[in-house]
Amino acid sequence: MRRLYAFSNRNPPLPIQTYDDDDDDDIENTRIIRYSNNNNNNAVRNENKTIVRKTTNNIIENPNTDYNYTETDNVYLNETARCPYIRFPWWLWLLLALSLLGLLGLTLGLGLGLGLRKSSINVRCTGNNCPANSQCINNRCECNSGYFYDYSMSYCAAYLHVGITCSTSNTNQQCITNAYCASNGYCICETNYFLDQNTGVCTALLARYVPCANDDQCQTPFVCKVSLCDCNQTSYYDSGSNTCKRLGYVNDPCSANSQCVQSANCSTTTCQCPSDHYFDTAEYQCVRKKSIGETCTLSYQCITNASCTSVSPFSNQCECNSGLYYDTTTGTCITQLTYGKICTSTSQCIDNLLCLNDPIVTGATFQCICLTTQYYLTTNQTCISLGTYGDACNTGGRPCETRY
């Protein structure tokens, strides 16, 4: 005989069921069970789930007495629904459920992220899974033309134009083509390139005779002269060395007029100024000599047969040398006119002669003559006053005034 029973400290008390040891299969099928409450009353109820304590009763006979003892072995609990001794609070179940949902979401998100993740620059790619402003070339993500990879921002950024600030610590290309990030933190064009203001790109410097807008666009040593790249005004182009050489000064060797300074000529293998020019050491070129009456500092600046003469304490000017006068027609200093020569001004006549209209000769033009109170002494080429009453005279010498 076996008996199933429960502890009586439960409310309602657990049912008690008695059954035979030989009929263990009937335990699970039993539905009409007895249980005792605190009042030791018995009742019958239907129960699908039964918590029992199974006890095996072995009858032990005592030879010394008439009493038999019951030995209990194999005591255990059998519950088909839940353990009656372990209970979890509801919030613990809720926390466990939320944790499971979070773990599930993390797993799904990680899987989705890995599936949709785009390849980085220089990373193997397939199709169109490269970052923005890049494309898959030869199975590698590369930035598009006009873009560079900014490692600090992890994306392809547009190249920086000349004059825009850049990072000197970034060894990657940041500036537009043919430009670089200078030590001052700005993009500038590479050597032998200039910034084209019309296109905004760095263009190769222009060669000789190529149209230009300013000197910065021409190759060294050319400058922009008359809208063309060429040697400057103080140099000439030497085709043998493909460079510019300084123009020859006076007496410098030459082989062509183009190798000499402005207005100079290559004369007998040396540079020489024309006869009506002089070499200006301040301007390093031949300039036209100064005419009569123009300000000067040295006589070689004046025209031929003229000198730089002081006309005041603060001014010098070119004047013809003694015995010469300035011919406005030819622009030269020529010999002064002697007695009786036709003239237009007294400055053309030698000393003591005046450019006068001879009152004695009818229809005569202006001539270099003496005053009417003088006579011309040919031996001295000068005018001498006529003799008055009592003065010595002779037929071959000093004449007397006509009134005596």
From TrEMBL:
Sorted UniProt keywords: Membrane, Transmembrane, Transmembrane helix
Taxonomy of the source species: Eukaryota, Metazoa, Spiralia, Gnathifera, Rotifera
A Pfam family the protein falls into: EB
Membrane spanning residue stretches: 90-116
Protein name (record): EGF-like domain-containing protein
Domain EGF-like: 124-157, 165-203, 243-287, 295-334, 342-384
PANTHER family: ECDYSONE-INDUCIBLE GENE E1, ISOFORM A (PTHR39069), FI17111P1 (PTHR39069:SF8)
Source organism, top-level taxon: Eukaryota
InterPro entries: EB_dom, EGF
Protein species of origin: Rotaria socialis
